[in-house]
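To: structure desk
From: M.T.
Subject: fold request, one chain
Message: Could you run this one when you get a chance? Sequence is below, nothing fancy, just the single chain.
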Amino acid sequence: MTGVGYSDLLAALAPETALVLAAVAVLFVDMGLMRSAPLRQRFLTACAVAGLGCLVTLGILASSGAHLRFLDGVLVVDSLTQWVKVFLVVLTLFTAGISAQAEFTEHVGEYFALVLLATVGMMFLVSTEEILMIFVSLELTSLSLYVLAALDKRTRHASEAALKYFLFGSVAAAFTLFGLSLVYGLSGATNLTGIAAGLRAHRSDPLLAVAVVMVIMGFGFKVAVVPFHLWAPDAYEGAPVPAAALIASGSKVASFFVLAKIAVLGFAGVEGSGAWGQLRAGWLPVLAVLAVGSMVLGNLTAIAQGHLRRLLAYSAIAHAGYVLLGLMAMGYPSQRSAALAAVLYYVATYGLTTVGAFGVASVIERVLGNGRIDALAGLSRRSPLLALCLMVFLLSLAGIPPLAGFFGKFGLFTAAMGADPAGLGLLWLVGIAIAMSTVSLYYYLRVLKQAYVVAGDEEASRIVVPWTDRLVLIAAAVGVFLLGALPELLLGPLARAIAGGNGF
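Reply: Done. Structure tokens follow.
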């Protein structure tokens, strides 16, 4: 804490403080002032309060130049962590936006407060390099998301999804905690740089291999990679749509960022090798196995799905496999900065695209009462806006230029190919990723075929999209297009933030 005063600490924590105050304000307004109001009005009011809190937080992040390292990594604030927090708050703002017209629960204030508190947990998660703080932040995020997944009491699917999410999450937390305890026992340190220094003398210790595998297993659950993905399809399908959107977007951004920190900073020196023909024990070959399993199983299983949200779940599993390629490239020092920029660009744009896709699903399910893909028949006639936005989001997920998904995949694959320029290196993984991306195009086009080609019921009325949903969907679609056509809008600031960062 040398050189850091409490005024500096409070200034560094101003974004998190703003969101906590917004959560309290939402509870006060809904439970104190709006309790007898109609449910739709309560949702709109709570959305406005939560959205205002997010906008204030974004203003604080934009104006803050704080750089702080508190208690040897318990709290780390620099330009890079500030950018990741911006991603998280933007995704939370969009999640609140697609919640404005919802009616899935009477506990409106509690719902929005949990959304904001989950975001606070994610923000603390990306702002620490201390394993105890990582675990506490992870659990704050997870507990909020478990409850969010169960808030829709009208259907048994929500309770089933939340129970499965909670049980799998509890087991994953146990593995994570046990793995971190082994790391502490071997290194004698709890901050990531100290752990890396302490593990140098134990590179051949079998306990270190067990610790690495257990930690990766825990975070593998959070990012839904194979074989730790079994909760995701049910949670994405059964949870309220906005809660599923936050689980699929914000939690992925935070979890991948902290996993990158743990692997690159905490497990420095025990990377091993995932290069073709040169496999050596370490965290790189573990990620290689998870990446292949996620890309292959996620894409092939998505083909058979008949529910839009379930298809997005298996698509998310495949996309997690793509991101693991970028994390593997970070294990090679020559590619570290480029790979980190590619990973952050990818998870940020993927999160934005996913929130938009879930926003379309939210409107469709609310109007039609059916989230199946065949219910999209004739969507282009009934709502050209919904069909157009759905096309933008799905083609971006497929990696079609000039949308953000194309440049995101291009950056990941380029970083992976450059990891070992003298040999085949990670080229075998890039080949699998490209092949599976081609497969993904098939099932995305199958959805768009329903929306644009299949006629549907000629007597079906037009779908009226509320102004809040229109605002969110148009903003997300424009963002996906602009960040794909002009990737430097995001990559430029990210590159400067990485260059000026204290960790990577």
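Reply (cont.): The longest strand covers residues 68-70. Let me know if you need anything else for the meeting.
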